[in-house]
DNA sequence: ATGACTCCATTTTGGAGA
């Protein structure tokens, strides 16, 4: 069972990129972020033609999250994060697929920091961590996949960077992510690849992709019920090279179940 | 370097992303 997360950065204008990737890699479950599309503008028919069912929470212009499943429609359990301070922002969706509960998230970017956007990021993070703990307490198989907008360690971005105290690197952001891991979640990509670059994002600016100067901010966390089933993980870097690419590439894990 | 890319809406500038 291959589960992926992909910040598509507009699901309508980048439908050809999404289609090319789905056809080539055939992931079983996909969490999408930054749909940037109204609820009614989601390209369900095109995805169904590829064999995917979907549930989604749309929002015009910004945010928006979806969960796709190959050969079935995910069983929707939530379209909002409990305790989200701003209900208008579509940043969390949750659904069951083949006995695995999948949470798809688009954590607030938080820039500029400090400021109200950074405050919102930290409040959202705490609400998310609280919900993650309730999921752990349920002792069911869970994957939390999405754009966390956190670079966990200095090994998770290119050397000699100039990100300074960017909200993605701030100690408060990293500490919140570490508290999440400390609940008992396993970082799927790092568990399979303990060292080395695992970039999932390359800015459009300054030739970051041709220079391979990236960041790792898209993560898949697995609950203890699934750690033994985790057999592979990776980043589909080729998708970042397509014409009209998102600035993110899909990240994925494979579970033996 | 409030630079550069990319897209969109409150459109012909500016906001957001990270």
UniProtKB/TrEMBL annotation:
Residue numbers marked as site, Important for catalytic activity: 218
Origin: domain of life: Bacteria
Cofactor: Mg(2+); Mn(2+)
GO biological process, one term: DNA repair
Cofactor stoichiometry and binding remark: Probably binds two magnesium or manganese ions per subunit.
GO molecular-function term, one example from the UniProt record: metal ion binding
Residues of the active site: 106, 147 (proton donor/acceptor), 248 (proton acceptor)
SUPFAM superfamilies (UniProt xref): DNase I-like
Keywords: Hydrolase, Magnesium, Manganese, Metal-binding
CDD domains, alphabetized: ExoIII-like_AP-endo
Record-annotated site: Transition state stabilizer: 149
Site note Interaction with DNA substrate, residues: 248
Binding site for Mg(2+): 7, 34, 147, 149, 247-248
Xref: PROSITE patterns: AP_NUCLEASE_F1_1 (PS00726), AP_NUCLEASE_F1_4 (PS51435)
Residue span(s) of domain Endonuclease/exonuclease/phosphatase: 4-248
PANTHER family found in the cross-reference section: EXODEOXYRIBONUCLEASE III
Similarity comment: Belongs to the DNA repair enzymes AP/ExoA family.
NCBIfam families on file: exoDNase_III, xth
Protein name, entry field: Exodeoxyribonuclease III
Gene behind this protein: xth
């Amino acid at each position: 069972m291959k589960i992926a997360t992909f910040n598509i950065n507009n699901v309508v204008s980048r439908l050809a990129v999404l289609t090319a990737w789905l056809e080539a890699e055939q992931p079983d479950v996909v969490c999408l972020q930054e749909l940037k599309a109204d609820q009614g503008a989601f390209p369900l028919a095109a995805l169904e033609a590829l064999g995917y069912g979907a549930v989604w929470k749309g929002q015009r212009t910004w945010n928006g999250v979806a969960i796709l499943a190959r050969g079935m429609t995910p069983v929707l359990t939530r379209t909002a994060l409990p305790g989200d301070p701003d209900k208008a922002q579509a940043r969390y969706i949750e659904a069951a697929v083949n006995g695995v509960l999948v949470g798809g998230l688009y954590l607030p970017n938080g820039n500029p920091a400090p400021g109200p956007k950074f405050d919102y990021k930290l409040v959202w993070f705490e609400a998310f961590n609280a919900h993650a703990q309730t999921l752990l307490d349920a002792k069911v198989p869970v994957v939390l996949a999405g754009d966390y907008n956190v670079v966990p360690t200095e090994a998770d971005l290119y050397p000699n960077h100039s990100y300074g105290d960017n909200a993605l690197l701030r100690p408060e952001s990293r500490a919140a992510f570490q508290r999440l891991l400390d609940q008992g979640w396993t970082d799927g990509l790092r568990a399979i690849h303990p060292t080395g670059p695992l970039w999932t994002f390359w800015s459009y600016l300054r030739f970051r992709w041709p220079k391979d100067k990236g960041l790792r901010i898209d993560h898949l966390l697995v609950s203890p019920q699934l750690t033994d089933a985790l057999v592979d993980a990776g980043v589909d870097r080729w998708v970042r090279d397509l014409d009209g690419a998102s600035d993110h590439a899909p990240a994925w894990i494979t579970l033996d179940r």
